[in-house]
Specification:
308 residues; 10 strands; three-stranded mixed beta sheet; alpha/beta
Amino acid sequence: MARRTVFFCSLSFCALLMVAYSIFSFTTSHQRTLSDNMKFNSENLMNTLDPFLDLPRNFLGAKLQRLQTKKRLFHVALTASGSIYNGWQCRIMYYWYKKFRDMPSSEMGGFTRILHSGKPDSLMQEIPTVIVEELPNGMAKDYIVLNRPWAFVQWLKMARIEEDYIMMAEPDHIFVKPLPNLALEDTPAAFPFFYITPAKYEEIIQRFFPKHMGPVSAVDPIGNSPAIIKKSQLEKIAPTWMNISLQMKSDQDANKEFGWVLEMYAYGIASAVHGIKHTLRKDFMIQVTLVKMVNEATNNIPNWGTGE
């Protein structure tokens, strides 16, 4: 991977690998807002990113300060549906997490699989797991990803998380290196997706992020995962992310245009609502299939052939 500037030379590269296991297609369904506590706040929209480097202008100072302080651990939070297919993805992801967690350059803390099926499965003893409920009354319908923001809302309320930061991940992610905390104090870090283009859908975006709140450029081209963010920030974003996801699913135009990445757009919008900008880290993740790592995991995970 080419390095764009010398500022990245001392940082870990390619920290995650996304294995493209499947392509999703979803149809329209009508949703309602689960709660009415979404608060829009247009004050203090952050605009501190250098447009060329995609890094805060105080990056060097923050980096030097970081080198002089103790590790800033982040908690890895993995959402899961409970299907057999999803289960073996989680097992491989957790295998590589354990392999890199305690290495010197790692700031990886605890790990939780947030199981949004509402019931236990056979991996409860193998992977640290918290069970949360699915959206009620079939609100997710054929778009199971809508359970993700609702799962985070529940987990954040019930969990006792020791780390100040949270990394949101998905079952089809694999760690390929020890991962440091890429967030910079109050500026979370996320991977920019080329297919998330808020400016292209300005009219639709403004239905959920009105003009008086700020420009569409305040909406980052990201999803919630992979991202590393302060726990206190995610506690603010999560309910808004959930409600916007449901509202967008009910909006015919938004549902048609955004399809299976709808909740990714919703996360970016929810962050902008709360005035939170992310550092865009293209080195956070590479998107290819790496069979060797999958094979190593399956060869070393106990009871792979008999488990899920």
